[in-house]
Amino acid sequence: MPTLTNYHWDVVDDCVMTETDQNGSTIVTYTHEPGHFGPLISENRDIGWTGLTVNDWSALSVEDWGSLSVSNPTEYCHHYDTLGSTTMLTDETGAVTDTFQYDAWGNVVARTGLTPSPYQWVGRLGYQFDVLTSGHYIRARSYQPAIARFVALDPLVQNAGSDLFETLYCYASNSPGFVVDPSGLLSIGLDNNLSETGKCGQPNAFFWNFGLGMSPEMHNCDKSIDRKGDKDKKKSAYTVFGYFVQEVQIWCNIDKKCGCNCPTIPTALGKPDLIIYESWEVTKKGKSPYIQEANILNYSDRFGWTAMDKTCGYRVVKGTVKFFCVDDTGDLGEWDVANATGSWSARAKWASGCATLDPGGLPSTNNSEDVAGFWGSKAKEGPLDHKLECVWNCCGQNECSCLPG
Q1: What is the pTM of this model?
Q2: Residue 55 dihedral angles phi and psi, to the nearest 5°
Q3: Residue 362 contacts residue 345 (beta carbons within 8 Å)
Q4: Contact criterion met (CB below 8 Å) for 209 and 246
Q5: pLDDT greater than 80 at residue 267
């Protein structure tokens, strides 16, 4: 008989930590990296699979797992591709127990092994496969890879006609090979121009994209702000209905004397060396004339890095982005976000110790009091996180690497 499965949720990082049966006994314990959506590392599972085949597994629902035979707990480590999809599971001895292959939209095209892990396609970010529907639970909405669409509207969408079906149910801006949507609300692009190895003294760049994934007119922002044009500067008038606001944290350590022990990225990063906030206006039509890289659906950010000659060290940059309507109400009252970001500097360059950041003309601030009224309140969409880790040794070895964290 099927049994009840209870999911115990980390409400801060928005991820499942344990599963228990109807008696309160633990079925699975999950280990995650710190951070939003808690990137999955491994799972400790008590369920055994005596006498079952792959076909048996495909016919079982999640609720059926609790009725299976119990074996000694086994730790399974997830191995991912660049999108965050599980390609392999290994047990405590390092032996491969399961392998997975998917098409671009998340359909399983080949599989070996019988471990009943629900975290398969984009499993690192918590996409939870349901064997009963062959779909994926992605927090705010469910996604069906067989039709390459969400099966529900964005909860924040206003009334829309049936002719907009493709837009309203669209998954990851129709770019599943390099865009993910771990909240079910906000897409993040993993397509980047990344120098994984570079030369000392030369710049490397990492780009990440994020967007609403549908027409701005479909999002439930009740009010907007009209911006005046500037004929002298050939800038047209435009209308703003929301903002992307990003928190950027930087950790770094640089040895400028090229000692014997170059700094390495610690397991626990501790307090950042620099924190700033920057904002993008989200416009009704066309591009914001003040932010050239931003258009109505797709926003890009660039994390730059230069390995300095005759130094060694590391630099870690983490971005957390949220979307707010212009009239979102925080602790200070209506129009918090518009009023706050409107006073930020558009030409500031920030530095603290070894950490430096140039927002490239975006309005920005390093004063946490400037976002206290709204950052901690519930955003319309997000947050989404991305991290870049850079390590170099330019003390005659010319070793440089820069990778997503």
Answers
A1: 0.66
A2: -65, -40
A3: no
A4: no
A5: yes
